[in-house]
Each structure stands twice: as C-alpha cells, then as structure tokens.
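Hi there,

I know you've been waiting on this one. I reran it after we fixed the sequence typo, so this is the corrected version. Both the input and the resulting structure follow.
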Amino acid sequence: MEIKFAIVTASSTRSISEDTAGMALESLIAENPGWSVVSHVVKDDDRAELAAAIVEACDMYGANIVLTSGGTGLSMRDVTPEATRDVCDRDVPGIAEAIRAYSMQHTRRAMLSRAVCMQRGTTLVINFPGSEKACRECWEAVADQLEHAMKMTAGGGH
C-alpha cells in the first residue's frame, strides 16, 4: 500500500541537517515498500508556524500521515499538541495512548508527554517526541497499525 508521509519537526535550535529524529523517521519510513516522505521541515517552537506546516503537509503535499517531532513536553515553548488541535478535526486518542503505554516500558518520563493524535480530513497527524531514541520507540509502537489506519480512513472495513 502506498502511504505518503510528511515530517514536521518543532525546534528553535536545530536545522534540517541537525534533525536526527526526523532523519531517523525518514529511514524507518523508507524500510516499507510503497511508503515515502513527501515533505520534511523544521519549524520554530511557534504554535501558528507549526499549525501552518501541518496544514501545508496535508493540503499541499497530500500527506496521508503527518508525523510531528518535538514540542510535546511540559515546557511553555512546547506547543505542538495545541498547534495540532488548531488545524485538525477529530481526535484519535488510542494512538497517543498506545505510544505512551509502549514508551512507559522504556522510561517512566513518558507519562509527561502531552502528545496527541488527530485527523485533518483524511490525514492522520501523530505527535512524536523530539529525541531520536524516543521517535524510534514511538515508531515501533504504531508502525504496524498505520496501513490498517489508512485503509479505514479510506472507507475500508475491519
């Protein structure tokens, strides 16, 4: 199945060449036949800027899944969940819950994540943490369900 991904990294300190978490996600996506990355950007920790990047990934690049990286913690500059809510229509709480449950097996600090998962139209937007290690763990938690999620979004049955 073909799935188009976009990666939006929230960081006021990293450039695209320093975005090891985003690059790791690109590599993990490429391991799956038919899966591709149509956009990968780094944006400041700014709610409006992140929201605009999510809209662009969905509406201009036609991403089926947008993975955000970073901005999900307790710092006042962490605004990725709010930016996601600003531009999405429907909650998909089970994915964020599954990520936290899986991550708790690796670090109890996973309980501090405010990450969300939502839909913008037919695009799934999933918030991941900002570190490469945490992104890899979160990918492990959900990757095997993404194809089914896309089939369901397209109107398929269980």
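Quick highlight: The beta strands are 3-10, 35-43, 65-69, 90-91, 117-120, 123-128.

Best,
R. S.
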